[in-house]
Amino acid sequence: MTLKTIPVRVVEKRRAALDICLFELERSDGQALPPFSAGSHIDVHLPSGLVRQYSLCNDPAQHQRYQICVLLDPHTRGGSLAMHDKVAVGDTLLIGEPRNLFRLVPGEHAVVLLAGGIGVTPLLSMAWKLLAQGRRFHLHYFTRSAERTAFHAQILQSPLRAMVSFWFDDAPGVARPSIGDILGHTEPDAHVYACGPLGFLNYVQDTCVQMQWAHLHYEAFTAAPVAAGEAFTVKLQSSGRLIAIPAGQTVVEALAQAGVEIPVSCEQGICGTCLTRVCEGVPDHRDQYLTDQERERGDQFTPCCSRARSPVLVLDL
To answer: Options 3.90.79.20, 2.40.30.10, 2.60.40.1590, 3.40.718.10; which CATH number does 5-96 get?
Structure first.
């Protein structure tokens, strides 16, 4: 699948916090960038060939530039290290058009934003949008320390200040509230949006289940590990060849061993590089790329992480 890309220039790169860099991107031809909605992300194509996904964190009303923040991941597979060490002001990059799987629900209800670390990026964009709409909201921003808190000074000097609470692990004499404490003081019909590491999201989800919270929306800062599943068979539409997919192996891995290569990038079901058409069978979608409507159609899936609900999947290969 060929995805449309946009050439952009890095017009600013600065330290946003310890191990976090902020990049400001403008279109290389000087034209306005495509508008985006709060919660959107973009694919960033690195010179090495890697593709990584980053949430847009600036005000959606700004069309001349995109801002992304990149955490230097100690377990990096090359993406965050390349962004920190290899990408400089003046460089040209290719990016994908904004895509949103984490949208704000319209309405008059109150909104609670729960950010864990660098997961603040899409929520900050949401905060700017909610502020512009005059909506009732509050952002609770959990980090290890002030020095690891991106946008700390910017928020304190902005109109968002009154709507943001910072909670640092190392703050002496400050009782950090639980998610239950926060929701216990929130209107019961409020919509909760959470983003951060998987451990943080699991904590938020467990709390919401216990409290029978009706409206929770979340996005993982990193994808969940690809889970194993039942064994099944892939049939290649072009040749009729059958390839067994073991329970503990992805479709991409099994096909590669059989000499059938599928282009991949993130290998976590986020970027859509490996998206493949399904001719027959029922996919078991485990990605974060397809929309609910696209999943319901069942005519494509991401073989890097998704599996099958039927014994055989016939793929357009």
So the answer is: 2.40.30.10
Q: How many CA atoms lie within 13 A of 211 on its CB side?
A: 24
CB contact at 8 A, 241 and 235 = yes
Sheet containing 51-55, strands listed edge to edge, beginning at the edge strand earlier in sequence: 51-55, 41-45, 92-96, 5-17, 20-27, 66-71
Question: Which of 18, 11, 3, 119 is CA-nearest to residue 66?
Answer: 11
pLDDT recorded at residue 1: 42
Prediction pTM value: 0.77
Q: Quote the pLDDT of residue 21.
A: 96
Give ∠ CA 129-133-135 in degrees, rounded to 5.
Answer: 95
pLDDT of residue 2: 45
Q: Which residues of the chain have pLDDT under 50?
A: 1-2
* Per-residue confidence (pLDDT) for residue 291, from 0 to 100: 80
Question: CA–CA separation, 37 vs 122, rounded Å?
Answer: 10
